[in-house]
Design goal:
The protein is mainly α. The protein has a two-stranded antiparallel sheet. It is built from 8 helices and 2 strands, in the order H-H-E-E-H-H-H-H-H-H.
């Protein structure tokens, strides 16, 4: 029992660390909706993503050939990562363009295209599947007890849901942080794409520069805050 609990804690930690990508995606995508719909989008998107991840877990357990080559020495996992990485690159670059060109402001508050809510929910779920495929395969490799993995997924999603709103609102209030978060998503998209081509990129090469850039941006925000206070 102690081993099972230790493994559960380990998997929850793994899911939460990898959930940083989810928090950024949710913050950026949900920000395109009217404020009244954002929390609903977070709830629906994360709930469907959790269900999709559990289904994918069952598929991984049933289909051990998910990592076997099917075309050009690429497996189903590799093809999903390549497609997901390219899609994330496209979305991040497009969102940066919309932000710096004030495209969203030109539409006016709350004026979103019909079907935008469903489209954003679908994108959150699809990208969560891409983000989670490696963690699911790793979890299956660590244990065959599905209740441990499902519990870790559910508990980690509760944590992500708890943090997604304050982090998302904070990012949307600071355009520089939004662009920085989108730049992080570009880096993550490139990494996912490279992983699909069997080119391993150490996670430290991603998260350390991210953390350093975030620290510099927070210092800049603190400087601006103190300067405005001194002027006032």
């Amino acid at each position: 029992m102690a081993d099972a609990l230790g493994l559960l804690v380990l998997l929850i930690g793994l899911e939460l660390v990898l959930g940083v990508d989810n928090v950024l995606v949710i913050a950026i995508f949900v920000g395109r909706l009217p404020e009244t719909q954002r929390q609903k989008a977070r709830m629906v998107g994360l709930s469907l993503a959790m269900v999709a991840r559990i289904i994918m877990l069952a598929v991984v357990v049933a289909l051990t050939g998910l990592t076997r080559p099917v075309a050009a020495n690429l497996s189903v996992r590799d093809l999903i990562l390549i497609a997901g990485g390219l899609f994330l690159l496209y979305k991040a670059v497009r969102e940066i363009h919309h932000t710096v060109e004030f495209r969203d402001e030109d539409q006016g508050p709350g004026r979103k295209a019909p079907g935008a809510f469903a489209s954003i929910i679908a994108q959150i779920v699809l990208l969560d599947i891409v983000f989670s495929i490696d963690s699911v395969i790793t979890a299956v490799g660590l244990t065959q007890h599905l209740w441990i993995i499902v519990s870790a997924v559910v508990l980690s999603f509760i944590g992500i849901l708890f943090f997604s709103r304050p982090i998302g609102d904070f990012i949307l209030r600071h355009p520089a942080l939004k662009i920085l978060a989108l730049s992080f998503l570009i880096t993550i998209g490139v990494t996912i794409f490279m992983e699909g081509l069997h080119k391993h990129v150490p996670k430290a090469y991603i998260y350390l520069p991210m953390g350093f850039a975030l620290m510099v941006e927070m210092l800049q925000m603190r400087y601006e805050h103190n300067r405005r206070g001194k002027r006032a």
